[in-house]
Design a protein that fits this description.
alpha+beta, Glutaredoxin, Glutathione S-transferase Yfyf (Class Pi), Chain A, domain 2, 2 domains, four-stranded mixed beta sheet, 4 strands, globular, cytoplasm, detoxification, transferase, glutathione binding, Glutathione_S-Trfase_N
C-alpha cells in the first residue's frame, strides 16, 4: 500500500484535523514539516502541491489533496475498515452531510476569530480587540444553543457515534476551552459533556502530544 505523507505544521489547526483522522484510523504517515514562519507554504515547491499556499496537503500514492475537511473525508472513505468508522454506518447520511457543513460554515468562522483574538494575538505580542471578541462570542453562543438542542437528542452531532463532524471541531474547541470562552460551553450541559468526551479521545491525545515535541 502506498504511504501517506502529510505536508503541514503541528501548530496548524487545519493540519491537526488531518492528524486526528489518521490517528482515529490507526494509519501510519510521514510528516513533512512546512516552516510557515519562513514562508515555505508560499514558495514554489509547496504551491505545486496546493496553489492556495495553505497547509495541510496529503499525498497518498498519486493522489494529492488539500483542504483539511476534504482530506479527512478521503481518509474515512479510503480506509473504511481501519480504526474508527467516522461515518454513521447503517444510518441515513443526511445528518452527517448537514452537520459537516454546519461546522465549516457556522461554527468555524466565529471560533477561529475568537482563537485569533484570544490565543494567537497574545502569542504574537499583538493587542486583542475586545469588540471582535464580544461580537464573535455572541455569534458562537447562538450556534451553541442550536448544538445544545441537537445534543440533547443525539450523543454526537451527526448520529450516536463519533464521526468526522465531531472530529472537525476538535482543534478549535481545544483552544477555546483554554480561554474565557469556555464559559459558553460550561453553560450548556450537553455541549459541555460532548466537548469533554471528544477532547478526551486517545487519538486527540496523540495530536496534542505532537505539540510537546
Amino acid at each position: 500500500m502506498a504511504g501517506i505523507k502529510v505536508h503541514g505544521s503541528v501548530f496548524s489547526t487545519a493540519t491537526q484535523r488531518v492528524f486526528a483522522s489518521l490517528y482515529e484510523k490507526e494509519l501510519e504517515y510521514e510528516l513533512v514539516p512546512v516552516d510557515m514562519k519562513a514562508g515555505e507554504h508560499k514558495k514554489e515547491a509547496f504551491l505545486s502541491l496546493n496553489p492556495f499556499g495553505q497547509v495541510p496537503v496529503l499525498e497518498h500514492g498519486d493522489q494529492k489533496l488539500f483542504e483539511s475537511r476534504a482530506i479527512t473525508q478521503y481518509i474515512a472513505q479510503e480506509f473504511p475498515d481501519k480504526g474508527t468508522q467516522l461515518t454513521c454506518p447503517g444510518k441515513p447520511i443526511a445528518p452527517l452531510l448537514v452537520w459537516k457543513e454546519v461546522e465549516a460554515l457556522q461554527f468555524d468562522p466565529p471560533s477561529s476569530k475568537l482563537n485569533w483574538e484570544l490565543v494567537y494575538k497574545p502569542m504574537f505580542g499583538m493587542t486583542t480587540d475586545p469588540a471582535a471578541v464580544e461580537e464573535n462570542e455572541a455569534k458562537l453562543a447562538k450556534i451553541l444553543d442550536v448544538y445544545e438542542a441537537r445534543l440533547s437528542q443525539s450523543k454526537y452531532l451527526a448520529c450516536d457515534s463519533f464521526t468526522l463532524v465531531d472530529l472537525h471541531h476538535l482543534p478549535n474547541i481545544n483552544l477555546l476551552l483554554g480561554t474565557p470562552v469556555k464559559k459558553l460551553f460550561d453553560a450548556r450541559p450537553h455541549v459541555s459533556a460532548w466537548a469533554a468526551d471528544i477532547t478526551s479521545r486517545p487519538a486527540w491525545a496523540k495530536v496534542l502530544a505532537l505539540l510537546k515535541h
